[in-house]
Amino acid sequence: MTLRFDEQVAERTKRAMQYVKEHEAQLEPRTITVELRKEDNFLSAASRSGTDLKWYSDESKERGGSSKGPSPLSYFLSSMGFCQFVHYAEHAMVDGLKLESLEMRVNGTIVSQRPRRFTEVTYEVRISSPESEERIRELAKKAADDCYVTNTLKRGCKVTGIIIHNGKQIDSHT
Q1: Residue 17, SS3 per DSSP
Q2: Residue 38: strand, helix, or coil
Q3: pLDDT per residue over 51-91, tens digit each?
Q4: What is the C-alpha separation between 68 and 117, in angstroms, rounded?
Q5: Which helix H or strand E contains 106, and what residues bound it?
Q6: Three-state secondary-structure class, residue 16
Q7: CB burial class (10 A; 0-12, 13-18, 19+) of residue 133?
Q8: What pLDDT, in 10s, does the model give residues 104-118?
């Protein structure tokens, strides 16, 4: 099986990435707004302004939550993977790469002493693809380098990525 990218999505993505490449120096910062509402116990709701998207954050039943959504820290860690996956998809479409599967595991090390924070984030990307190791290595670097979340995290803690291609580690980067 190969991951599928619709032709219309691929064309729109190619145009957008070309525009950014040609006008990067002139592009103004953008603001993304998320509205949050506190509900009962640990449950909270969020939505993105201007869309009909809505999601929830909660804690596990063991922590007193109702398990109606991931915990805030789970969202935090998954946002890096989701962001990188957008950039993997963009570059795979633009560069014409075939990907059979793309998976990621993210581990975050936290300290409970104040100031509470992540001290390290490691992620392992597992890619099945008929592409060469070199092309997959380049794809992984582009996806991590373009990821807003990864780059923001790197300013606050150690971030290490391990790239596995067809079951073999081919790269590690910080």
Answers
A1: helix
A2: strand
A3: 999 999 999 999 999 999 999 999 999 999 999 999 999 99
A4: 24
A5: strand 101-111
A6: helix
A7: middle
A8: 999 999 999 999 999
